[in-house]
Amino acid sequence: MTGRTESLFDAVGGMDALRRLSDTFYEGVLADPLLAPVFANFTRTHIDHVAVWLAEVFGGPADFTARLGGHQALLRSHLGQSITEEQRLRWMELMAIAVEKEFPDDELLRRRALEYFDWGTRIARDVSAGSPGDDLGEPGPTPRWGWDGLV
Fold first, then answer.
1. Torsion region of 69: left, alpha or beta (phi above 0 gives left; psi -120 to 50 gives alpha)
2. Any residues with CB less than 8 A from the CB of 35 and at least 6 apart, and which?
3. What is the mean pLDDT of the chain?
4. Residue 109: what pLDDT?
5. Mean pLDDT of all residues in 109-135
6. Nearest to residue 68, comparing CAs of 89, 83, 82, 54?
7. Residue 12: its pLDDT value, please?
8. What is the DSSP string of 135-150?
9. Distance between CA 116 and CA 54 in Å, rounded?
């Protein structure tokens, strides 16, 4: 137990910080020969959707659930992507660079965020092996991540 009371959302700097993180991260992704093909249909709204998702996961507003379809929609967006472990690891490398650049200089905060990204990318990789239209069942509510991991 860390004893910290503020949410990860507040600790990273709120929505502005998450948008900067998404911008920095996707700038790297779209220039990366291994990852760019995965994002062939990328649009700028993707950056906003990722920031809104992370805000909810890190204890901020639940706007992804309210406006963008929640956990089910996030999982469904990965169906058919066939993400490889090599791509997942490269994704993690680029996210670590973005976290280092955009998040406060707080070792525990950065570590907790990267632990979430590692956990989430493993799920995305696994789900991506399915085909669009597959029945994912009910995944439950959007997960929440705090100072001690999954809440």
1. left
2. 29, 87, 90, 91, 94
3. 95
4. 97
5. 96
6. 54
7. 98
8. ------SPP-EETTEE
9. 10
User: Across the strands, what pairs with 149?
Assistant: 146
Q: What is the pLDDT of residues 72-106, one digit of tens each?
A: 999 999 999 999 999 999 999 999 999 999 999 99
What is the 3-class SS of 2-51, one letter each residue? CCCCCCHHHHHCHHHHHHHHHHHHHHHHHCCCCCHHHHCCCCHHHHHHHH
Give the Cα separation of 14 and 123 in Å (integer).
Answer: 25
Cα 55 → chain centroid: 10
Mean pLDDT of 14-21: 98
Best CA proximity match to 4, nearest among 149, 151, 148, 150: 148
In the beta sheet, which residues pair with residue 146? 149
d(CA 44, CA 58): 22
In this predicted structure, the answer to whether residue 1 has a pLDDT above a threshold of 80 is no
147 φ/ψ angles, rounded to the nearest 5 degrees: -65, -20
- Phi-psi region for residue 3, left (φ > 0), alpha (ψ -120 to 50) or beta? left
Average pLDDT estimate for 111-132:
96
